[in-house]
Specification:
With 408 residues, the protein is an alpha/beta fold. The chain contains 16 helices and 17 strands. A hairpin with a 5-residue loop joins strand 16 (380-382) and strand 17 (388-391). It starts with 10 loop residues before the first strand and ends with a helix.
Length: 408
């Protein structure tokens, strides 16, 4: 990308840890099942890939780091500490950078981790009852996203999770005591989920003291193991209408409990929004490292270079530098439509003056025309004088329909 004013803006770093101790039946993320992944080959591959990406990224300054997967906590406390230290050393990281890590509860709670180590060859937490929380805090991690998914034992078994509800609660408590900001992921709409089971999830989250909640409907992409379980009679498919009702029920309870519903799937207390994830929705640059990771670089004309790393964990570990990402340059109205769709994920919507400044050559009338049908259906609303557009109140579940109009 040619040099532009965008090059001076702070960017985000995403690091994909492509290992899981076990495979969840609904997951379609790219990973390899490995109970005890080695840290040194991972760091060597990341270093090689970063060097191969060249000065276009190495010259940038980063203000967010997000370590996801896969299951980053499968690396264990010391391994995660080493990975965070590598991130700090390898890129120009702002002093006020947000550093986020995804964890599984069974890798935080020492009793549960011990059970996994003996029963499944998982990663044991060693070094005291708060080893994981202590290592992350000392490494400078600001926030953790904990893959709880449900506090219902029925839900956890249905979703094929390794932990139990009590382990999730203990993990939250340990992380909060360490001073780390904690968010949890919940999955709703698993088959035959009852209202009271959803209510338990929300009530437990609210009482736990976490400051961020992500709520996702169970989705089953092609190729996930859940389909095989259905054919064997061990699972059934979720009901889309039931999922919509449960999402609304969760929203109502979380908002009444003081959480701000700020993005389709995300809720925050106070100022606990995810700064890193907001880069995806607001047209900011981010670099993704690791197999299947994605990157985005925006130019001064509103276009965006989208890059996607190839899959294949073994090949990436062996020679990450020789596996360049596939690249696509999205420009003009296509780039503007994509940016508008992403921006409408935030419930506050898109401020038109800033949007048009990032997409020179477009006028406000272009936005009005592209959204006219959705406005007539009551799915989007305009602020006075067309200064801002957002999804209409209560219509956030129609975001995909709005997007189809934008990109078609």
């Amino acid at each position: 990308m040619s040099s532009s004013s965008a090059d001076t803006k702070l960017v985000g770093l995403y690091v994909h840890v492509p290992f899981c101790a076990r495979a969840c039946p609904y997951c379609d993320f790219h990973f390899r099942v490995e109970a005890r992944p080695a840290v040194r080959p991972l760091l060597a591959a990341l270093e090689a890939e970063l060097h191969a990406r060249g000065e276009v990224w190495q010259a940038r300054r980063f203000d967010t780091v997000y370590i996801g997967g896969g299951t980053p906590s499968a690396l264990g406390p010391a391994g995660l500490h080493a990975l965070v230290a590598w991130c700090k050393h390898s890129v120009d990281l702002a002093a006020t950078a947000e550093i986020s890590v995804e964890l599984n509860p069974e890798h935080v709670d020492p009793a549960m981790a011990g059970e996994l180590a003996s029963a499944e060859g998982g990663v044991a937490v060693v070094g005291g009852p708060d080893a994981m929380a202590g290592e992350l805090a000392s490494a400078g991690v600001d926030r953790v996203t904990l893959g709880v998914q449900s506090f219902s034992e029925v839900g956890l078994r249905t979703l094929g999770r390794a932990h139990r509800s009590a382990a999730a609660s203990r993990a939250i408590d340990q992380l909060l005591r360490s001073g780390i900001q904690v968010g949890v992921d919940l999955i709703v709409g698993w088959p035959r989920q009852r209202d009271d089971e959803l209510d338990l999830d929300v009530r437990t989250v609210v009482a736990s003291g976490v400051s961020h909640v992500s709520v996702y409907a169970l989705t089953l992409d092609e190729g996930v193991a859940w389909h095989k379980l259905v054919r064997r009679g061990a699972r059934s498919y979720p009901d889309a209408d039931r999922q919509a009702d449960l999402l609304l029920r969760a929203e109502s309870q979380l908002v009444q409990s003081g959480f701000e519903h700020y993005e389709l799937s995300n809720y925050a207390r106070g100022r606990a929004r995810s700064r890193h994830n907001e880069k995806y929705w607001t047209g900011q640059d981010y670099l993704g490292l690791g197999p299947s990771a994605a990157s985005a670089r925006h130019d001064a004309r509103g276009g965006v270079w989208r890059e996607t790393n190839p899959q294949g964990v073994a090949a990436w570990l062996a020679d990450a530098a020789s596996r360049p990402p596939t690249a696509e340059h999205v420009t003009g109205e296509a780039a503007a439509a994509e940016a508008l769709w992403l921006g409408l994920r935030r419930l506050e919507g898109v401020a038109l003056p800033g949007f048009l400044a990032r997409h020179p050559g477009l006028e406000a009338d272009w936005v009005r025309r592209r959204l006219a049908r959705q406005a007539a259906r009551g799915n989007v609303r305009w602020e006075p004088a067309f200064e801002r557009v957002s999804l209409a109140a209560g219509r956030w579940q129609w975001h995909d329909e709005v997007g189809l109009d934008l990109v078609s």
